[in-house]
Amino acid sequence: MAVGRAGKRGVGLKGLTHRIITAWALAGGVVILLVVAIQTISVITGAFGNPLPGDFELTELGVAVGVFCFLPYCQLTDANVTADIFTSGLTQRSRAVLILLSALVALVFAAIMAWRTWIGTLDQFEYDYQTAILQIPIGYAFIPIVISLLLLVLASLVTLAESYRDIAHPQQERM
């Protein structure tokens, strides 16, 4: 899939899935921009001897949330890192088989991670884990991470279905 799937949004449930996942990735970008702003303010105020307290805690939480927000979009748009040098000589159907296998691995990985991260989220709240300086409950950062993993499950299902269609009908163009 040299072109990728970004331009093939579709309509109905598939289109809704693309819009939700794209909006979620953009929200992750906003979180990363906020982290950059906090770090910039901390550096500037630190130059005058008064850095923002807990800036590294906010950075840790923000980057974790932001990165997980990008995962479903990368899966859905075929933007994950690939070794195209090994697959460039393969037929469209052979590439579709490899994409199907990778979508299956992503689906299993995302489902297990969502399940275990949800359990971890409950533990974070049960044991009242907080950041050291700002006393922010860490469980709140886990909630968008679990949502991201659930969206990754959804994106993996979409790419799995698309790959199956490419295997069954290699010349048929998707909408």
Automatic annotation (TrEMBL):
It is found in: Cell inner membrane; Cell membrane. One of its GO terms (molecular function) is transmembrane transporter activity. The keyword Membrane applies. It is a multi-pass membrane protein. Keywords: Cell inner membrane, Cell membrane, Membrane, Transmembrane, Transmembrane helix, Transport. Residues 38-165 form the Tripartite ATP-independent periplasmic transporters DctQ component domain. Pfam families: DctQ. GO terms for cellular component: plasma membrane. The chain crosses the membrane at residues 21-44, 56-76, 97-118, 138-161. The keyword Iron does not apply. Part of the tripartite ATP-independent periplasmic (TRAP) transport system. Belongs to the TRAP transporter small permease family. The complex comprises the extracytoplasmic solute receptor protein and the two transmembrane proteins. This is TRAP transporter small permease protein. It comes from Pseudorhizobium flavum.
